C-alpha cells in the first residue's frame, strides 16, 4: 500500500472579499493552507493515504485547522502540539495589471520553534513510500531548516522516494543562512526536484536567460536548465519546471516541462482566463506530479495529469485543490468545455 508524507507549516489565510484591497471593507474570509498541507489534501482527494507533519499550538484556531485536514482524509497523528500561535498570511487577489499580494505574519509561530529532535522520522516513515517538502519550510527558521534537512536524509535512509519544490520566498529568508547554503544541500538529497527559473537562480545559483515577466516563454530553453541542474546534482532523477506566462493577474498560460535521465517532456499548455485563485496552483502541480509518477505509465502521462490538476486549481477559491482524479483525467483527456456534467 502506498503512503505519502508531507512536512511543512499550516497557516490561517485571511483574504478580503472578491478582488478588494485589504481592509477596503471591514471583513476578511478565513481559510487554511500551506504548501505541504495543500499537497497532502490533493493526494487525499485522489484517494491516497497521506500523513501531514507539522507543529501547531493547543488552541481553537489550530483545532479548526486539524478538523478541516481530517475532513479531507489527511492523517494528522504525527503533528506536534506546542508553541503559542498559528502562522497567518494575508492574501489579496490581483486584477488585470494589479498583481496579487501576500503579507506574512508567521514569526514565532509554533513550527518556527521546532528542532530535529521533535520528530521521530523512523516512526513517521514506517510504511511510507514517498516524502515531500518544500523550500518554504527551511526558509522559516534555523530550527525548521534543520528539521527539514534531517527529514529528507531520513527519508532517503529508509528508502522513500523524495520530492522537493524549491518554492523560493524572498520575504521569508531572514534567519541567517542564505537560500543557496541550505537548499543546495537539500537538493543533493532528493530524487524529484520541482522548480521554476527564479527558484533555480535564488536557491541553487543556476541561471536561465529568460524574462519571467514576458507573456510568452520558450519551453526549449528549459532543457538547458535541466541539463545544468542534473549535471550538478546527479542524484536527481527528474526535474519538473512550471511555465507560467502571466498576461495579467486574471489571465495566465500554464504548462509544465520535465527532464529525466531518459528524455525531455512538454505538457499541453492551458490558457487560464478569469482566474479565481492562483494561490496553491504550484502545490496542485506538485501533488499532481507526485500522483502521476506513482500511478500512471510514463513521464508524459504524469506531467499531463499535473498540468491539468493545476489548471483546475486556478478555478477554485482557497489553497486546497478540491478535485478528484476523474476531474483531472477529464481535462487532461481534452474536455475543457466547462459544460454541465449530468
TrEMBL record:
Q: Which UniProt keywords apply?
A: Kinase, Transferase
- List the Pfam families hit by this protein, alphabetically: PfkB
| GO molecular function (one) | kinase activity
Which InterPro entries does the annotation name?
Answer: Carb_kinase_PfkB-like, PfkB_dom, Ribokinase-like
Q: Which domain of life is it from?
A: Bacteria
Key word Ubl conjugation present: no
Carbohydrate kinase PfkB domain ranges (all copies): 1-318
Family the UniProt entry places it in:
Belongs to the carbohydrate kinase PfkB family.
Descriptive protein name: Sugar kinase
**Species of the source:** Cloacibacillus evryensis
Its lineage reads:
Bacteria, Thermotogati, Synergistota, Synergistia, Synergistales
Amino acid at each position: 500500500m502506498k503512503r505519502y508524507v508531507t512536512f511543512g507549516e499550516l497557516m490561517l489565510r485571511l483574504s478580503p472579499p472578491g478582488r478588494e484591497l485589504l481592509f477596503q471593507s471591514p471583513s476578511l474570509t478565513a481559510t487554511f493552507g500551506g504548501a505541504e498541507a495543500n499537497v497532502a489534501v490533493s493526494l487525499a482527494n485522489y484517494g491516497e493515504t497521506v500523513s501531514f507533519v507539522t507543529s501547531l499550538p493547543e488552541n481553537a484556531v489550530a483545532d479548526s485547522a486539524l478538523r478541516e485536514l481530517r475532513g479531507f482524509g489527511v492523517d494528522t497523528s504525527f503533528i506536534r502540539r506546542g508553541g503559542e500561535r498559528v502562522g497567518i498570511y494575508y492574501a489579496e487577489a490581483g486584477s488585470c495589471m494589479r498583481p496579487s499580494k501576500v503579507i506574512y505574519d508567521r514569526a514565532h509561530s509554533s513550527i518556527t520553534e521546532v528542532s530535529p529532535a521533535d520528530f521521530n522520522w523512523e516512526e513517521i516513515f514506517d510504511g511510507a513510500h514517498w516524502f515531500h517538502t518544500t523550500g518554504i519550510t527551511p526558509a522559516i527558521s534555523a530550527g525548521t531548516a534543520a528539521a527539514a534537512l534531517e527529514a529528507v536524509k531520513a527519508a532517503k535512509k529508509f528508502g522513500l522516494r523524495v520530492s522537493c519544490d524549491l518554492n523560493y520566498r524572498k520575504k521569508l529568508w531572514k534567519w541567517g543562512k542564505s537560500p543557496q547554503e541550505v537548499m543546495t544541500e537539500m537538493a543533493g538529497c532528493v530524487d524529484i526536484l520541482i522548480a521554476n527559473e527564479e527558484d533555480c537562480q535564488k536557491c541553487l545559483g543556476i541561471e536561465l536567460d529568460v524574462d519571467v515577466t514576458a507573456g510568452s516563454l520558450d519551453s526549449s530553453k528549459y532543457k538547458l536548465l535541466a541539463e545544468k541542474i542534473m549535471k550538478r546534482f546527479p542524484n536527481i532523477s527528474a526535474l519538473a519546471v512550471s511555465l507560467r506566462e502571466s498576461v495579467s493577474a486574471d489571465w495566465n498560460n500554464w504548462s509544465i516541462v520535465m527532464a529525466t535521465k531518459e528524455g525531455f517532456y512538454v505538457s499541453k499548455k492551458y490558457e487560464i482566463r478569469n482566474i479565481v485563485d492562483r494561490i496553491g496552483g504550484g502545490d496542485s502541480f506538485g501533488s499532481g506530479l507526485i500522483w502521476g509518477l506513482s500511478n500512471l505509465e510514463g513521464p508524459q502521462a504524469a506531467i499531463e495529469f499535473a498540468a491539468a490538476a493545476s489548471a483546475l486549481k486556478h478555478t477554485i477559491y482557497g489553497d486546497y485543490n478540491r478535485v478528484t482524479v476523474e476531474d483531472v483525467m477529464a481535462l487532461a483527456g481534452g474536455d475543457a468545455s466547462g459544460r454541465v456534467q449530468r
